[in-house]
Amino acid sequence: MDWSIKNHFKKSSFSVLEGKDILHEQIMQKLIYKAVEKDRLTAPFRMIGTEMKVSSDLEFSPGKSVRLEGTLDRVHYAHETVHIVDYKTGKADLISKETLRNDIVQYVQMHFDEPRYKSGFQGLFYGYLWGKIKGNNPVKLGVYPLKKVNKGIQWLYFGQTISIAGFNEFEKQLTQVLQDLFDESIPFTQTDDPERCRFCAYKEICQR
Ligand code: SF4
After folding, report:
1. DSSP category for residue 160
2. What would the pLDDT profile of 173-196 be if each residue is shown by its tens digit?
3. Which residue among 53, 97, 183, 208 is the one 20 to 30 A from 6 at the CA level?
4. Are 19 and 87 in the same domain?
């Protein structure tokens, strides 16, 4: 822990932690203990990897493709299913609309329509990339908001596996987004939905 803090904040290994660093260390320790305790309650599972880099090319139009990349925070195997989990420092707003419980296509589509479900979108994106590399099999996807570590992993799609139909729909929607993005006849315009601006990384340069 001491080494991690020094390494992260680029301090000399001979320095002594003080002030805010000690607080960081204590918070990290608490989070780790709680997270491990949560894992203990869900054991057994087999860890496949952490911080796994994955990438795949998607041809969105004939002769036009993009490289999609992601880093999977955690992949583990339990109950004969791969589980992909994304750790979050902020809050995660997941879809809880009961009418979508048995409608994976609508469930996936909603992540393209509603920006507030960006955590779920990211989870689906990682699951999609995993399927591209490892072959399409249903997987469970989750997010782990560290501010609510006591709640443990929060699973997408009501804790059910995401089927191949779900990932096919994801690819279909993503392909459409990329086609629009690269279509020179469609100019870039500011969105009409100010809700989207709340989470936008380009707010400063956009001057919205
Ligand atoms: S801040 Fe600008 S670029 Fe970002 S979503 Fe809003 S309009 Fe689009």
Report:
1. P
2. 999 999 999 999 999 889 888 877
3. 53
4. no
Domain count along the chain: 2
Nearest CA to ligand 1 atom 2: 206
Q: Cβ–Cβ contacts within 10 Å for residue 82, how many? A: 19
Closest ligand 1 atom to residue 200 Cα is 4
Count of CB atoms within 10 A of residue 179's CB?
13
Task: Give me ligand 1 centre to Cα 203, in Å.
Answer: 6
- For 36-56, how does the pLDDT look when each residue is reduced to its tens digit (9 = 90+)? 999 999 899 999 999 999 999
As separate numbers, helices (DSSP H) first and strands (DSSP E) second, the chain gives 7, 5
Q: Is the pLDDT of residue 130 over 80?
A: yes
Whether residues 39 and 71 fall in one domain: no
Q: Is the pTM for the entire model greater than 0.70? A: yes
Q: Residues near ligand 1 with C-beta < 6 Å? A: 190-191, 196-197, 200, 202-203, 206, 208
In contact, 138 and 164? CB cutoff 8 Å: yes
Indicate whether 28 and 51 sit together in one domain: no
Cα of 152 vs centre of ligand 1, distance in Å, is 33
End-to-end CA distance of the chain, in Å? 42
112: part of which helix (H) or strand (E)?
A: helix 104-113
Domain that holds residue 13: 1-43
